[in-house]
Amino acid sequence: MALVEITDPNAPMIYNGIYHLFYQWSTSGAVWGDIVWAHATSTDLVNWNHHKIAMVPSEPFDIEGVWSGSATFIQGKPIIQYTGIIKSNQWNYQVQDMAVPKDLSDPYLVEWNKPIEYNPVIKPTDGINASAFRDPTTGWKGPDGIWRTTIGSKVGNNGVSFLFRSNDFIHWNKAKEPLHWAKDTGMWECPDFFPVAVDGKEGLDTSVLGHSVKHVFKVSLDDTKHDYYTIGTYNPKTDRYTPDEGSIDNDSGLRFDYGKFYASKTFFDHEKKRRVLWGWANESSSVADDVKKGWAGLQAVPRTVWLEENGKQLKQWPVEEIEQLRTKRVSLRSQVLKGGSVLEVLGLTASQADVDVKFKLPKLKDAEIMDPSWVNPQLLCSSKPASVQGKSGPFGLLALASKNLEEQTAIFFRVFNHQNKYVVLMCSDQSRSSLEESNDKTTYGAFIHVDPHHDQTLSLRSLIDHSVVESYGVDGKAVILARVYPTLATDKEAHLYVFNNGTENVKMSSLKAWSMKKAEIKYLKDLKHSD
Ligand code: FRU
């Protein structure tokens, strides 16, 4: 079987009650290349049915590539904007194209037309770097009735997201000023720009403006292969976005995910009034292993995103529909976990499980004093893996663990006292995830801000699925997706434990876990992806 690689999610949307996901599908084998747009639909975001390939390079305006893009509804009808690569003396010459459904009465929108009379709809004029001009966002309409879209680029080494305006979504003009830019951040891929409600979890349509709304701007930094975002204000008069604090930055920016998660994209689900986030997680195994396995890359479980009450960051949670895969439930009674304890959670399929454990927030006086030099959470997690004893913590889960714990992926918290305030460190430690040496076993970490008045509980939810461990810390304030390849802890040989390796006791207030069924994903017959 040919190797199948999937990368960026493209043009996610809901149309007439059916969810659509397109994605970049590399048809050239073990390495990225010969991209087409794969297309799948679903009624629940969990079980998917693939349709024929939606787009392949076919016209002068995309003959060298059909790259990432987004969907926008214009008077209730979807239009896709995507990046086309054209033949040129210049390497990867990028333009923006549009595609429309051939038959709007087809519930699955299987066929897509690329109108030759309009395409390309946007060219890299005005000195734009033509090999760094891609990934149009979902469009939004200003109070003046004019459509906007933003496209990732770079000027020198400064990342930039150019703004374009249109009356009809066909003819576009570049605005003088970009929507946003930041120094020395390199190429901005896959920008995403959307409003979030100041109060509550409800998602908003992309064009919503007003006082009760903040805006989120996210980019995928080509240099680091991470997605960063800021929360800020969008001024529809000047068409500029200004972050409230911080910036899109290689080290200190906010991330949707502190593990593997790239080229992400949100859409507004008007039926369930939520904003849903998709992201791509690549492999941490060697290319040789990917070839053996026959596939590479996956789409993470879709997540609902909303603004945290303090307005400083987003929160995320797996879409509720994922819970329909839960089968047998096990639970552990509320109890104190003494320092050094390791407790097995028995009776479930630990290789495919949904685990939700809650710990009581330890007392600040029992927390280790934070050293001011500990500013990088990922480095801190690497230097203090699960085996390093602390005071309050490390405590958490050992997922995909072998019987004698030679293999384990540890997801845990450490609680620190920083000038009499809490700092909670969340880690996903892959260093012992597999006996296979060739994997990338980088440890990931994030600092989580907790407010003892609100957060009396430190919750940890991990979705475990063979080579994926997606962990949501403290009600979704930080998320870490890890890719791991145990050799012993597979299928029925996988175990799950809860542990406390701090000197202080910690109260586990509840632990619920479910074995998970497989989602039904139907692939195309001729070019089969692997199970
Ligand atoms: C991000 C990206 C996009 C581009 C696409 C090509 O992973 O590089 O910028 O449109 O992938 O596959």
In words, what does this structure look like?
By secondary structure, the protein is an all-beta fold. It is built from two helices and 40 strands. The strands form seven sheets. Strands 26, 27, 29, 35, 36, 37 and 39 form a seven-stranded antiparallel beta sheet that branches. The structure holds beta-D-fructofuranose (FRU). Beta-D-fructofuranose binds next to strand 1, strand 5 and strand 15.
Spell out the blueprint of helices and strands.
Blueprint: E1 4-15, E2 18-26, E3 35-42, E4 48-55, E5 65-74, E6 77-86, E7 93-101, E8 112-113, E9 133-134, E10 140-141, E11 147-155, E12 158-166, E13 173-174, E14 180-182, E15 188-197, E16 213-221, E17 226-235, E18 240-243, E19 254-255, E20 262-269, E21 274-281, H1 287-293, E22 295-296, E23 298-299, E24 303-307, E25 314-318, E26 326-332, E27 335-337, E28 341-344, E29 352-360, E30 368-369, H2 377-383, E31 395-401, E32 409-418, E33 421-429, E34 444-448, E35 457-465, E36 468-473, E37 478-483, E38 495-500, E39 506-516, E40 521-522
The structure holds beta-D-fructofuranose.
Name the shape in a single word: globular
Low-confidence stretches: none
Determine Rg (CA atoms, Å): 23 Å
Q: Strand fraction band?
A: over 45%
Number of strands: 40
Q: What's the main sheet like?
A: 7 strands, antiparallel
Q: How far is it from the N-terminal to the C-terminal residue, by CA?
A: 12 Å
Sheet/helix structural class: mainly beta
Helix content: under 10%
Q: What value does the average pLDDT take?
A: 96
